[in-house]
Recover the amino acids of this structure.
């Protein structure tokens, strides 16, 4: 046993989050579930993020603060808060979202009742930059089947569904989450992580609106996400995930996601027959739906190279 191990670890990765950070931290501290630690990892912020974090360090001894002097990318920072955590349960916290005070308590109650659960979330509200209600997220279905293959299939079929990503902000059973490879450092890495999670355990939902996802101009989805992948700036988006300062020559996010699916199936311990069925499911998805995303990758790359050549000729 870890000495003084908290029941729950909150992991809050942040980069330049001064505008909403206080609200996120206050939301954590207001939880009715009190046995927790809050780990904040600052990814080289250049605004007032560090000052705000150190202010809260003086207020609450459950808070710890880590700082990198340079931005190492989204995946590194989100994995870091998990790696230094010690709780029985774990929850990622975005610096711009908020929770109702009962969020964690109700999620952990569900996890304690069902040891096969890896993750529990609640229904989601949307709020705007001022914190005003701005709608609801509606899920097509829950990923609650007791069969790993069926859960895996559902995640595959919901590729490109932005509402799926918010499941990442639920409460995890830490020992099961530890069996995954966590966040891969490529575009849509959260989808790949959820696919891997779906093999390990099933996911449940508290039927109350206890989580508020904030929509604002500086959010990742607003800056990078678009329903037409070919007009997205994959190179800039890739830097966001990896933290590399050099723009990549070629970015094929859908191809990378497909490759990671095979790696996930190979990584998670399961019988050979289950593994074979999951491999078959990936190929079924590629031939039925995924090929459209792969085709978009190629089209985007050809358009980008053509634009680069024409730009060079004009110069």
């Amino acid at each position: 046993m870890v000495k003084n191990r908290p029941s729950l670890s909150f992991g809050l990765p942040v980069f330049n989050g001064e505008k909403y950070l206080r609200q996120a931290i206050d939301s954590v501290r207001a939880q009715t579930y009190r046995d927790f630690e809050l780990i904040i990892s600052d990814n080289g912020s250049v605004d007032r993020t560090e000052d705000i974090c150190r202010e809260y360090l003086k207020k609450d001894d459950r808070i710890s603060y880590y700082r990198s002097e340079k931005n190492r990318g989204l995946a590194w920072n989100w994995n870091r808060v998990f790696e230094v955590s010690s709780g029985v349960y774990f929850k990622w916290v975005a610096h711009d979202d908020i929770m109702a005070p009962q969020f964690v308590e109700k999620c952990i109650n569900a996890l304690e009742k069902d040891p096969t659960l890896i993750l529990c979330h609640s229904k989601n509200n949307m709020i705007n930059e001022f914190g005003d209600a701005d709608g609801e997220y509606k899920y097509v279905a829950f990923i609650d089947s007791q069969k790993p293959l069926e859960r895996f299939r559902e995640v595959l079929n919901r590729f490109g569904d932005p509402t799926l990503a918010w499941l990442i902000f639920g409460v995890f059973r830490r020992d099961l989450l530890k069996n995954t490879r966590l966040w891969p450092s490529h575009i849509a890495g959260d989808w790949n992580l959820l696919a891997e999670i779906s093999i390990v355990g099933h996911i449940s939902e508290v039927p109350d609106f206890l989580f508020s996802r904030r929509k604002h101009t500086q959010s990742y989805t607003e800056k990078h996400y678009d329903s037409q992948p070919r007009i997205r700036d994959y190179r800039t988006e890739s830097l966001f995930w990896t933290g590399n300062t050099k723009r990549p020559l070629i970015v094929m996010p859908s191809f990378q996601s497909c490759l990671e699916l095979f790696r996930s199936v190979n990584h998670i311990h399961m019988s050979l027959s289950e593994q074979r069925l999951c491999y078959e499911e990936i190929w079924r998805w590629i031939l039925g739906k995924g090929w459209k995303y792969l085709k978009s990758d190629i089209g985007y790359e050809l358009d980008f190279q053509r634009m680069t050549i024409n730009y060079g000729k004009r110069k």
